Amino acid sequence: MRGFPSGRIVARSICTAGLLSTLMSLPAHAAEDCRTANASCPTVSSLLSQREGYGRAATGGAGGQVVVVTSAEDAGPGTLRDALREVKRRPTWIRFASDMTIALESQIRVPSNVTIDGRDHAVKLLDYGLGIYGAENVIVTHLTIDGRLRTFSQAINVANGSRNVWIDHLDLSRFADRLLNVKNGSTDVTVSWVKFHDDDKVMLLNNITSDNLFKNYDRDVIARVTLHHNWFIDTAQRNPRAQFGTFHLYNNLLENWDFYGMSFSLEAKATVEGNVFINKSQRACTEPPFFPTVEGVNASYCSYIAGAPARSTLVNGESDRKSYERTRAKYQYSQDYRAFLAVRDNLYLGDARAVLESYHPEVVPAHPYCYGYERPDLQLVGRIRAHAGNVPPDKVTPCNFD
């Protein structure tokens, strides 16, 4: 659990006996050795001590080589793209030599056993982001990725059976597709302390790829994703949109969505607790003139702002209900179009209104890990605003297992 300002009272650390060792940081040794990404290196141990959630087993490039990016070019010697091409399954911890802005000409693919660590420098990727496809054991922390609404791509795309992935302290904005996906059989992912902003369809946790809504259910139901302490600000929708899979959303901050906040459907099993929703029905619209879409439609949601606070979430299953009703007879669905939900302790401020209710919460699995849960209040709001995104690391205190 992270450290807190003096006098801050944390509501509780929630732990499950027997599985706590998976969250423990690597052992620290007296001698500092950062020539490789060993446990004795404070750079490594300080980051790994912060892991929580379903992606808590990710160690990235720990124990492997340290590679330093020295060039802000798209490709070639010393570049981020070149460093990732040369990994070849060797654990690799990537750092940056200086502040740099990298205008990418295409998405960069991230292989297994890699940490991309932007701490200590201001590192920004423009126009394209990172693709994590069929990879295991990946950590990405402290980067800014800005699509500038120029490409039909994603800031972070976790897909094709990827697992053990931790996405942390990123600033993601302005992609014409989505800022983040977790889909196509990917699982055991944590997304923490990320600032999502100035975007339309922000995050998709699984997606429908067929007229048959449940065609890929067996593949995607394995998904397990934790979202905590993320800041969704000045977005339109899908913060996130979740289908199938098991999801844990706690202590996230949603502010000023223009269409709707969260969405759950198609037998997703989600715990939604301790999140803060803030919106006003009368405020200026900060959207660009339009969002380009893959369908070729220029979308705008400014006209929806007056009713947006009442849509902190969509009604359970509403995002897929019409498609379900239209195709149910054809495919003889036995599944529910609604999600199974355990909803508790969320806070609604301004004009924001509660929509989501628990639905068969007994079906939602208990989470097999310790997590640093905070009471949803204005102090939590201030902490997330101050620390989410690509900002200097705050002090860390390991999770208390007592």
UniProtKB/TrEMBL annotation:
GO biological process: pectin catabolic process
Any Pfam family the entry gives: Pectate_lyase_4
Highest rank taxon of the organism: Bacteria
Pathway named in the protein's UniProt entry: Glycan metabolism; pectin degradation; 2-dehydro-3-deoxy-D-gluconate from pectin: step 2/5
Key words, A-Z: Calcium, Carbohydrate metabolism, Lyase, Metal-binding, Polysaccharide degradation, Secreted, Signal
Family statement: Belongs to the polysaccharide lyase 1 family.
Organism field: Caballeronia pedi
This protein's name: pectate lyase
Requisite cofactors: Ca(2+)
